[in-house]
User: Fold this.
Amino acid sequence: MDHFEYRDGVLYAEDVNLVDLAETVGTPFYCYSTATLRHHYGVLHNACAKAGLNDTLICYSVKANSNIGVIATLARLGAGADIVSLGELQRAMAAGIVPEKIVFSGVGKTDDEMAAGLEAGIRQFNVESLAELDQLAAVANRLGKTAQVALRVNPDVDAGTHEKISTGKAENKFGIAWEDAEAAYAHAAGLAGLEPCAIDIHIGSQITDLGPFRTAFEKTADLLARLRAKDLTITRLDLGGGLGVPYQRNNETPPDPLAYARLIAENFADSGCQIILEPGRLIAANAGILVTRVIRTKQGQAKNFMIVDAAMTELVRPTLYGAHHDIGLVRQRDEKLLAWDVVGPVCESGDFLGLARELPELDPGALLAVFSAGAYGAVLGSSYNTRPAAPEVLVDGATHDVVRRRPSYADMLAGEKIPDWLNSQDGQ
Ligand code: LLP
Assistant:
């Protein structure tokens, strides 16, 4: 469910008219709805409560949409954060998430990142290899700190999702092999500076069937019993993110968060463990749209092209994953529909937002909305072709705020220079 709706033929974000907003901020831009963010957080939170999970921490996976306005909105609801870099740690803290609610994931944490997490006092490190355990212990000992540790174990489950976002199979780079898990915990328990107190799994993203979760949770419950039999004190289970969302607004039934929470409860309600969840897409995807303007249309011999001012530089998911995003008119009109490839101005044939979309022929300046773009949209943007990052606008009721401004060209060139030797006498 989201709060992007047509009123008298014009698309609104909550109570903000998107035609007016496009005039004010210019296109392309991202627009996020506070009400939708809150709603999605609330649905998961309430599902957990209803399923009888009374100690749950929802650590929003900041990578999905790391705008500090978005993170702050969730922080105010009580969310923690799942982070994967020093930059994300700084964002999460700048947005008001307390360190005790931050979990640090990722296969490539550096010494500096580990030290920053320890200094801040984050809740836990999700560690992915024996070498990383040793490295974290060394950093913790140097700083005189103790790191709370979850081992990310790889349950070797096929999440049935796109190969680029599947993470829980043996061939993926993530996690410690299932067979090696017990030995890894024993290794961690023997290292000064570490307190192995949690199990972590994350099997993939955009998972639309609960089956793979069921298998992974059952395996995790079994591992928990085996670790406890060896006198390890496990007090938390981090079950990752990955719950899928509908990308075709009228035509898809997403997995039900309550059924997901009940599945967790079935396996772990009696475990005495805190349950940590790391949802990203579930919270942010349908809370955001990308608004773009038609530059011109071009009817080719084989296809019709609608050339718009947003591109793969703003939303790479269609070309990177073959992902579908609904595309609709901001101002509805009742005219004959044709099939259009909606493409951007970037010099790549893969630069498209949607292929063969049924739309009327539009005049230059007409506005389109690309839906479900709140997760893995702006964060995956690039400045290829020296295109300034699209601004991000957060709406709350009838008000809006530009929570990331569009950089000027001067901003974009500010970090670069012509090398000294080309400026010197000799170089001329
Ligand atoms: N936890 C970990 C350890 C993760 O790696 C991820 C996502 C999440 C949580 C959040 O997963 P979610 O709830 O959002 O599914 N760029 C891709 C998605 C990459 C997901 C990476 N990891 C896309 O646009 O589909």
Remarks:
- The mean pLDDT is 95.
- Residues 34-281 form a domain with the TIM Barrel fold (CATH 3.20.20.10).
- Residues 211-229 form the longest helix (19 residues).
